[in-house]
Amino acid sequence: MTDGLKMSHVSHLFGENRVLRDISFDVAPGELVCLLGPSGCGKTTALRLAAGLEKLQVGEISVDDQIVAQPGGYVEPEKRGVGMVFQDYALFPHLNVAKNIGFGLRHFSEADRMSAIKAALEQVGMSEYLNAYPHELSGGQQQRIALARALAPKPRIMLLDEPFSGLDVARRADLRDTTLHVLKDAGIATVMVTHDPQEAMYMADRIIIMNEGQIMQDGSPETLYFRPENRFVASFFGEVNRFSGTVVDGKVATPFGDVDSQSIENGTEVEVLIRPEGLHIGEALNGHDVLAHVDAVRVLGEVNLVHLTLEAGAHIHARVPRRFSPINQPSVAITLDPDMAFVFPMT
Ligand SMILES: Nc1ncnc2c1ncn2[C@@H]1O[C@H](COP(=O)(O)OP(=O)(O)OP(=O)(O)O)[C@@H](O)[C@H]1O
Q: Which atom in ligand 1 lies closest to the alpha carbon of residue 37?
């Protein structure tokens, strides 16, 4: 028995375009899973199939162990126990907040409906806006109402499609936080689509990285960040410094010393990907240091991005805490944190 959402061996074609290729994953009650990937990789299609907005062609989808979609079998979206929030709020402009939320509760008695509306508004911190109209609310407030509307019928599954992308940075951070806590408190199985790795890291218990209709890796944010299984996953979480080489005696040479590559056959052409925070900067103290010229230092908030050119020629980026930034230092020594270097075969 599997509670929550289960997608098994789902494939999907739009005409000749194969947008999903045998994807399988499940989401437990109370778990928040992000589908993360570049534009066009099939995230929204997977979500729409789970919601029942798209007819399933291949595979099976179940909610709380009940099959809701299989080829030739189909449970209507409103009978799946699924709540949805999209990027564009989609509130009815001519209905006030109470009526917008109450729209999905038409089968409730009037008293139950009003108490469900009030409870949902309280969950999203919007109790005082019961009688407001959408045009009187900011984008962030409208999205809170959209979330309340999706929560009010007490869904088993919540599907969120880029729900924060229309908002400015401050409102986005605020609403992410509310959304995360509300969904966790309610114990709902949630799938959120995003193309923003930082957002996925912030929200997700688990991240499923997709590319060209396939799952590239499914795991905790920590696993994906520190133990990526392929080049796509390693480089999707932000920029990486890239070096090519060949495996010799279970190691590959980089400008910063040898990196372990035991699991790859000797003689294989490989690429070494190094995260900018895997390069540590220090003062050049002896003749054995790896030296680099400091081209520029850019403030990114709590960390600085340092643009460097190695004495040997390559241009690299290091991300360092502000207090270690080489302001006014023409050159520095670089050491590598081997945990932040990933080796993958070229092909
Ligand atoms: N109704 C449709 N008819 C035909 N092709 C479609 C349809 N919906 C999506 N597609 C195509 O399917 C592919 C996957 O689209 P999908 O929206 O699932 O990707 P996505 O990863 O969510 O991307 P985005 O972040 O840009 O929305 C794209 O090539 C898209 O053009």
A: 21
